[in-house]
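Weekly sync, protein design subgroup
Attendees: M.S., D.O., the rotation student, P.L. (late)

Item 1: inverse folding check
M.S. brought a backbone from last month's batch and wanted to see whether the design step gives back something sensible before we order anything. D.O. pointed out we never logged the input encoding, so this time it goes straight into the notes. Structure tokens as presented (164 positions):
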């Protein structure tokens, strides 16, 4: 067993983990974060994406022991009841989800992309958006609604910046 310290959605905890234990399992079982979805469990679907020190990371391919001293954010830290993140709102309005199983992973993958484009003050073309989410699989939507959701939020952010 290995002693690690994890900061998860603002809560710091010390815990003891087996060296082979996956971050996805620790988040779901020790922190009750069921928004970390497991689809393929081998790095192909993106459902389990979380942020590790601010960067998207597949938690099914990450050992918890590798995360000692690091900060983890899951979809539970994004928005809240009645206070969805703009990207979550756009997924709803643009029909970017159906069953929703893939959605936490897409949201965690795309938030840094939206922030990057907003900081660069530019609207990416469709190819760039599809490339940004190419590690995430959705079996329901056909992806177009997700592309539209990303465009909508970046468009709103650019408009807001232009007015400021
Ligand atoms: S469950 Fe991690 S990539 Fe599919
Ligand atoms: S909404 Fe069902 S898998 Fe994406």
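Designed sequence read out in the meeting:
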């Amino acid at each position: 067993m290995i002693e690690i310290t994890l900061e998860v959605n603002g809560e710091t905890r010390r815990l003891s983990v087996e060296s082979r234990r996956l971050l996805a399992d620790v988040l779901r079982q020790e922190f009750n974060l069921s928004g970390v979805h497991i689809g393929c469990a081998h790095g192909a679907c993106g459902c389990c994406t979380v942020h590790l020190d601010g960067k998207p990371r597949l938690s099914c391919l990450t050992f918890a022991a590798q995360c000692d001293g690091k900060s983890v954010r899951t979809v539970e830290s994004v928005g809240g009841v009645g206070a969805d993140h703009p990207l979550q709102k756009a997924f709803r309005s643009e029909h970017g989800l159906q069953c929703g199983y893939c959605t936490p992973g897409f949201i965690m993958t795309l938030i840094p992309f939206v922030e990057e484009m907003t900081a660069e003050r530019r609207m990416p073309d469709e190819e760039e958006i599809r490339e940004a989410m190419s590690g995430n699989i959705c079996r329901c939507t056909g992806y177009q609604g997700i592309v539209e959701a990303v465009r909508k939020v970046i468009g709103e952010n650019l408009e807001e910046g232009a007015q400021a």
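Discussion: The mean pLDDT is 96. Helices lie at 23-29, 86-93, 103-120, 126-132, 144-163.
Action: P.L. to compare against the previous round before Friday.
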